[in-house]
Amino acid sequence: MAVAPALSLSAAAGGGCLLFRQLFDGDTGTFTYLLADVPSRQGVIIDTVFEQHGRDLALILELGIELVASIDTHAHADHVTGSWLMHESTGCAIGLAAAAGAENVSLPLAHGDSIVFGGRSLEVRATPGHTNGCLSFVLDDQSMAFSGDALLVRGCGRCDFQQGNAHTLWSSINEQLLTLPDSCLLYPGHDYTGRNLTSVAEERAFNPRLGGYASERDFVGHMENLKLPHPHKISEALPGNMRSGKPRAVDTAPAWAPLARSYAGLPELTPTWVVAHQGEITILDVRSAEEFNGPDGRVAGSLLIPLPELEGRSSEIPTGRPLVVVCHSGSRSALATQQLLKAGRKQVANLRGGLSRWAAEGYPLDVASQA
Ligand SMILES: [Fe+2]
User: Fold this and answer.
1) How much is the pTM?
2) How many angstroms separate the alpha carbon of residue 157 from the centre of ligand 1?
3) Which of 116, 153, 203, 225 could be bridged to 195 by S-S, CB 3.0 to 4.6 A?
4) Core vs surface per residue 329-363: b (16+ CB within 10 A) or e
5) Which of the 8 DSSP states describes residue 214?
């Protein structure tokens, strides 16, 4: 049986020794950043979004990153952090400004701290003003900085709640961020119009609130007259973030199976779970009839509907039982899983690695007797 090729983290990092990924949550316009030191495979993730946990975890697992910490630039008002879920899944530390006073923080952060991952580190700089606990994280070589909501692309975070203060934000931006090298790339906490990064030089020149010839008085006058609506998720987001994103007991409905979600976005199950629950589920094989009846064999009791016929024959699939879709490698069954989910089927998952992995793990396959 073919064994999946081992991933080279260096290759995934484009040949460099630092892996960097920018992820985005379209619902809240939030950026999440994953950084990893290639030689040690240790990494950190910045500003995760609760609803995107499955996606982020899948990427970390697929890349084989040992996550040291899930850190937040501040206690967000517009989304709940995925830090607690990340801690539960990987054992990583949960980092947030000590000043935020949130529960479940195992890495309380303050100005001057260093967050080490392998041979690299992030310097913690206090940049209050949007909230009183805002932090920015500066990479050791000052080539990139993660400014949270203190400094956005051609903007900055609002100052009208969470102990915000425009004078304080002016000082934070000018003393802690715009003093970085001109070439330092700035990665913001949010954007709502498709802009994803900027640089110190650009913001110093073009930020309409504080760049060019703007003075502190101009900046404060601008910030105090924004008249923004209250963020609509604040009543759920802030209490959630004060628990570091730990769900309340009532939030956790038991799942029908321990689904893993691939970075491609599909629910997957392992052969081990499928074997243990074979009596309670339907196994749908979407290979051709030749393969199903051929020497590769099939899972006993599985239902054959070849992928090209699936749409027209979906009424043949029993309802009321969870469905696990299989094929040779997990590729055609991934497509079938996607189709079934799109058609409204709820309890459906792909067999990770397909029947190849099933056989490689030593689970039995029936071979049709030849006439
Ligand atoms: Fe914020």
Assistant:
1) 0.83
2) 6
3) 153
4) bbebbbbbbbbbbeeeeebbbbbbbbbbbbbeeee
5) -
